[in-house]
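re: the backbone from monday

yeah here it is again, tokenized this time
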């Protein structure tokens, strides 16, 4: 019984096998305002893609995480990083979240779980784990951070990029 529960929980929480350097899933999706987002097109233009997965719009940790990404957004832009928050929230909730907090970058509603599945982000009951995925301009997984601290995530990613790019 305990083993069956552990297997069920591991499946719900998501596999952790996304490896650095492997080809990234270059999806075509829509942002919360219905605008098309093509990951292959972004990487072909020489951009990094940063996906910060979060459990629920307007919750305290997600609010702090979103605000910090908004504060650092000009620096991410300078480094040619397209920043997207991803959650299971409906587009309308994400739009309200964006407008309430003046968030920057894009938000991707993942109602069918396609994005989370592609990047092996788990979760329970529609609340995604707090994971961050960085795709490099070559269309490969640059780095994956699992179970991030919402108060430090944006700074951690920016520090990594600055050290990698020497900027």
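seq for it, each position gets an aa:
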């Amino acid at each position: 019984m305990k083993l069956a529960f552990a297997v069920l929980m591991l499946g719900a929480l998501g596999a952790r096998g996304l490896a650095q350097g492997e080809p990234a899933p270059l999806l075509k999706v829509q942002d919360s305002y219905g605008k098309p987002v093509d990951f292959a097109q972004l990487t072909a233009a020489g951009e990094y893609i940063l996906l910060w997965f979060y459990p629920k719009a307007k919750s305290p940790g997600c609010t702090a995480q979103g605000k910090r990404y908004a504060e650092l957004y000009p620096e991410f832009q300078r480094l040619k990083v397209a920043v997207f928050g991803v959650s299971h929230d409906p587009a309308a909730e994400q739009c309200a979240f964006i407008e309430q907090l003046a968030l920057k970058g894009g938000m991707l509603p993942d109602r069918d779980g396609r994005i989370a599945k592609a990047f092996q982000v788990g979760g329970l009951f529609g609340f995604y784990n707090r994971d961050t995925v960085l795709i490099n301009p070559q269309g490969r997984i640059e780095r994956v951070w699992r179970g991030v601290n919402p108060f430090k995530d944006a700074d951690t990613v920016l520090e990594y990029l600055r050290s990698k790019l020497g900027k």
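Residues 79 and 162 are 8 Å apart (CA to CA). The radius of gyration is 15 Å.
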